[in-house]
Amino acid sequence: MVASKAYDIFNAELSTTGLEIITPETIWDVSKAEIPIWVKKFGGHAVVKIPYSNAGQGVYTIVNEQELENFMNQEFHYERFIVQSLIGNYNWSSTGSKGKLYHVGTMPSSKGNAYVADIRMMVSATDEGILPLAIYARRAEKPLQDTLEAGARSWDILGTNLSIKNEDGSWGSDANRLLMMDRRDFNKMGIGVDDLIDAYIQTVLSMIAIDQMANTLFNSKNKFKMRLFRSLDDDQALIDEILL
């Protein structure tokens, strides 16, 4: 939640430079009761996130009434959500203020299947500047489809996280969908040097935006500004968990 606002604030600073942190259209501070309204606003296709989760947990892709109903029937500990435009196949992506964004997928397999995939770049601050450390990619479990079959889960087509929660509560990883940036897997991505440069720039800008927001949340005596934080994320369930 706070990172999303940090991106917008930093984008305002960058407005005259030609640089921008590119994100889906994002609605902040949404109560559960408001979610169907925002899903409708995005044309019935949206992504709903619990803002404090990671590893693909707490992310819900919604492309039809059944998936929306399944989400609304769940109970949640937190009170605030993020709703974002959904980027899927051209035939079932959200239509936002910037138009429609959609996945083209990986290079087709021998069976003609293309998959949604992401690129993750890791960087580190050094005396010589922010330098790239590593890069990898992940693909979704099922191939990208022009139309969704009745009963199909959109998450299987769009979700690229590799984390798996086992029955005993422990975590595992679906390494079969990991794409290493060696010659074989890199060629599957259908990207070039320009795309890698874009990934580096997006990663660096995001890192700077979050660092600046983190600095803003502490005063000159290095004390956390709880009042400012609450103005950014007034979710009482989260506030109760913060120990100072």
Q: Unreliable segments (pLDDT under 50, ≥5 consecutive)?
A: none
Number of strands: 11
Helical stretch tally: 8
Cα gyration radius (Å): 19 Å
Task: Summarize the main sheet.
Answer: 4 strands, antiparallel
- CA-CA gap between termini: 20 Å
User: Globular, elongated, flat, extended or rod-shaped: what is the shape?
Assistant: globular
Average pLDDT taken over every residue: 91
Q: Specify the structural class.
A: alpha+beta
Q: What is the helix/strand order? A: HEHEEHEEEEEHEEEHHHH
Describe the structure in your own words.
- This protein is of the alpha+beta class and 244 residues long.
- The protein has one domain (2-239).
- Helices cover 30% and strands 21% of the residues.
- The protein contains eight helices and eleven strands.
- It has helices spanning 2-13, 35-41, 65-72, 154-158, 183-189, 193-216, 226-232, 236-239; strands at residues 26-30, 46-49, 59-62, 81-85, 95-96, 99-100, 117-126, 129-139, 163-165, 171-173, 178-180.
- The chain has a four-stranded antiparallel β-sheet. A three-stranded antiparallel β-sheet has the order 7-8-11. Strands 5-6 form a two-stranded antiparallel sheet.
- A hairpin with a 2-residue loop joins strand 5 (95-96) and strand 6 (99-100).
- Helix 1 (2-13) crosses helix 6.
- The longest helix is centred in the C-terminal third of the chain and has 24 residues, at 193-216.
- It is globular and about 60 Å long.
- The mean pLDDT is 91.
